[in-house]
Structure to design on (144 residues):
């Protein structure tokens, strides 16, 4: 399901870290609004427990993927892609292998679209359209 959605330019609409084997982990992402006093600050990002992908799609639906960037990883192991969805509050990040196949996609309903990335050692700092930053360790087991 997840891989077919990605190839069709779509993603599940529930907050989650989705893999092409149709497994997923909950994501807890609090994204302050553009006029919120915390705009321009780090975005909290916590990974939770597993959930049923088919049920999530059945309950919350799917959304089109709007990609704002795709950039190679510094070590040559693949690509990072990011952007949003049809509604202005949705953001997504996707880790792709060297052949462009999906390794994972993180869907965040309240993060707003991501517009860029910069790499630091094994991590990446993503920026959304409000200037908020999301720092991820790409070498962590959940994101590996």
């Amino acid at each position: 399901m997840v891989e077919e959605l990605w190839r069709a330019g779509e993603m599940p609409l529930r907050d989650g870290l989705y893999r092409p084997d149709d497994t997923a982990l909950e994501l807890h992402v609090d994204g302050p609004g553009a006029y919120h006093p915390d705009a321009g600050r780090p975005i909290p990002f916590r990974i939770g427990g597993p959930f049923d992908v088919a049920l999530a799609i059945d309950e919350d639906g799917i959304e089109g993927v709007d990609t704002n960037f795709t950039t190679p990883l510094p070590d040559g192991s693949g690509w990072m892609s990011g952007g949003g969805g049809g509604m202005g509050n949705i953001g997504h990040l996707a880790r792709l292998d060297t052949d462009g196949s999906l390794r994972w996609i993180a869907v965040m309903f309240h993060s707003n679209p991501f517009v860029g990335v910069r790499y630091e050692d094994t991590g990446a700092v993503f920026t959304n359209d409000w200037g908020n930053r999301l720092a991820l360790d790409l070498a962590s087991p959940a994101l590996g």
Notes: The longest helix spans residues 53-60. The radius of gyration is 14 Å. Residues 94 and 105 are 4 Å apart (CA to CA). DSSP finds two helices and twelve strands in the chain.
